[in-house]
Amino acid sequence: xxxxxxxxxxxxxxxxxxxxxxxxxxxxxxxxxxxxxxxxxxxxxxxxxxxxxxxxxxxxxxxxxxxxxxxxxxxxxxxxxxxxxxxxxxxxxxxxxxxxxxxxxxxxxxxxxxxxx
Amino acid sequence: xxxxxxxxxxxxxxxxxxxxxxxxxxxxxxxxxxxxxxxxxxxxxxxxxxxxxxxxxxxxxxxxxxxxxxxxxxxxxxxxxxxxxxxxxxxxxxxxxxxxxxxxxxxxxxxxx
Lengths: 117, 113
Known about the structure:
The structure holds 2 protein chains of 2 kinds.
Chain A: E1 4-5, E2 10-14, E3 19-21, E4 24-25, E5 32-39, E6 46-52, E7 60-61, E8 64-69, E9 74-79, E10 88-96, E11 105-107, E12 111-116
Parallel strand pairs in A: 2-12
Antiparallel strand pairs in A: 1-4, 3-9, 5-6, 5-10, 7-8, 8-9, 10-11, 10-12
Chain B: E1 4-7, E2 10-13, E3 18-25, E4 31-37, E5 44-50, E6 53-57, E7 64-70, E8 73-79, E9 87-94, E10 103-104, E11 108-112
Parallel strand pairs in B: 2-11
Antiparallel strand pairs in B: 1-3, 3-8, 4-5, 4-9, 5-6, 7-8, 9-10, 9-11
């Protein structure tokens, strides 16, 4: 079974609007971390935001926020006030277990976001 | 140079060639990673080195051979590859403890002919 599921292969949004990218995960480990990365056409993966399984509040980083619903095992990324430069692939990833060493991440298949003027 | 760099950015090689991919991180991190990104597949972790010791090898074929001579450099030696090995190979680094995110390089686009 897939550990990370991103059901939206592509999403379209108009500039300045908000968009939500879906991510669901599967784990039986009570301790885990969830990540979102952005991959522009240039190839590098850019870290956006992190949510720990024990964090009480949803993570926020500037225009990015993570809608963490633990019971539903979902960790959706919300981008507010979309910009043209937000057009890219977005990947959700999970680390199982406590952060006691190197990070073994499992990635989803990604969502391609296109922001139009 | 800052962050994580990878060379070459593009590589075309025949199935009988031997080549190496290089990764260098300028962040003082202790862990380094090789990932393979194929079209329409999730990013796959290949190898992990922590403090220059290989700690993870995800059943990668022996035609891929990693080398980590020090905490700043990581190589992926390639020999007798197959066309299905064509992919984007990404290197990443992180602190071994206390940090959460990995920092990625721009990748090497490999084409095996």
